[in-house]
What does this fold into?
Amino acid sequence: GAVVSQHPSWVICKSGTSVKIECRSLDFQATTMFWYRQFPKQSLMLMATSNEGSKATYEQGVEKDKFLINHASLTLSTLTVTSAHPEDSSFYICSAQRTGDYNEQFFGPGTRLTVL
Amino acid sequence: AQSVTQPDIHITVSEGASLELRCNYSYGATPYLFWYVQSPGQGLQLLLKYFSGDTLVQGIKGFEAEFKRSQSSFNLRKPSVHWSDAAEYFCAGASGGFKTIFGAGTRLFVKA
It folds into this structure.
């Protein structure tokens, strides 16, 4: 149990386009999901906390208008990278917390975004 | 401030040798502690976790970790490393519903 999926697993897009990444909890409900960004050979950097039915909470330095997060249901959160540029190329990982369990996260397999 | 520190950026061990990866934490109260492994281009896989109770925690793939309150440490160990263990390892802590804090990671290289 506690499986989290991400789609797509990789995406290549042109500069200026928008890309949507989906994060789904497959066998549990997740009131809270998290979005991380990971640069090569670095640790995970928390971008934002996504709560079902409310606005996401962004970490300092993360542009909320560039990284749009929607958490419309208890099993789905989406991250949209708007007007993507090459510097947005990165590995994006989501995680989900079971509703009622506030200290353990289950991670998705990640999405590799390459912006040309 | 809360923090999780992994002092070793990378470690190289011979196949069959024992392994210990270090992790230190700084929290007001004992946090929940985790070890994750990440293979290149993959997401994170949970190896083990410590919430409370027995300070020696057994995980998957033959890994174990020991929580030592006096040293604020949660070191990961394996008695005999296999070549497939080569990966990035992350220690993480969480407390009181606050966000999880990750260490910088330790890259494990395994030589034949």
